Amino acid sequence: MLKPDPFLLALIATVLLASFLPCRGQAVPVFHGLTIAVIALMFFMQGARLSRAAILTGLGHWRLHLAILGCTFVLFPLLGLGLHALLPGLLTPSLWLGVLFVCVLPSTVQSSIAFTSIAHGNIPAAVCSATASNLFGIALTPLLTGLVLAGATHGHGVSAGGVLDIVLQLLLPFLAGQLLQPLLGGWALRRRRLLSLTDRGSVLIVVYTAFSEAVVQGLWHQVPASQLALVLAVDAVLLAAVLLATRLGAQAAGFATADEIAIVFCGSKKTLASGVPMAGVLFPAAIVGQIVLPLMIFHQLQLFVCAVLARRYARRAGA
Question: Over the stretch 86-96, which tens digit does the pLDDT of each residue have?
């Protein structure tokens, strides 16, 4: 029996709290300042935790890594643009913006590796590819966001200071963490669980701040239940298309089953942990709440579907 994800339950509770008790008045600048601080701290610790040896490990399997990065940063955006071109009026502009933002995000790290392990796939390759995806995503996601949204949306997009904010709030803290990695890497490794909790706590703070702003702006009057159901349907179509493409593509390219598993689970994921802070940096505060809704739905959907798929791979390997 699949257990509910505790982090998802915490996210739902945070959204409910922001819906009924949004931050207002003098609390708003306090939470905005806190959001900037926790985002910078989170990316600093990501840099400090990322071993340089992990970056080098498995780089020789370049075909597999190119396949995964191609799914993450090429196939996903093309599918998102295709769906938007076919059904532009299906969702509100801000929700379509959120769906397209999901498409340009990097892969997850923990769940990609975990599902690859459960399915008896190529774990070293999954570690390397998921790490590389997040590393490249710091630069590629803002770039792709601008390119994708320029051709697909009208009146919405990356805020004017988005590039500078990415450099100051994401890239510089990450590089500082990398420079100090030889000193902090061992400490961070020994406190993985504590730092995982602080990462998730940071995401919850960003979500609360974003949804508070959105609720004050009338979020739940602008996003009815029918639109949420349509977002779920669009996310499901995206995920199904990528899972099918990664599996059939890996088999057609002649990859071994273990490599196919790594491609399927690393190429189909999108990160919530980095995606929410990036949305807070890239987009105007008034629409961030709607931007992250498709990502939160996609996050839980990918966990549920990939958990089932990983167990099927594992049963097949056992047989």
Answer: 999 999 888 99
Q: What number is the average pLDDT over the span 167-173?
A: 72
- Which two structure tokens, joined as six digits, stand for 274? 């980095």
The answer to whether the CB of 50 falls within 8 A of the CB of 131 is: yes
For the chain, what is the radius of gyration of the CA atoms? 19
Other Cβ atoms within 10 Å of 11 Cβ, number: 23
Ramachandran category for residue 153: left, alpha or beta (phi over 0 → left; psi -120 to 50 → alpha): beta
Kindly list the structural domains of the chain, giving each domain's residue range(s) and its CATH number in brackets, ordered by start: 6-314 (1.20.1530.20)
Dihedral sign for Cα 295, 296, 299, 305, please.
negative
Is pTM, for the whole model, over 0.85?
Answer: no
Give Cα 138 to chain centroid, integer Å: 11
Give the span between the Cα atoms of 299 and 248, in whole angstroms: 23
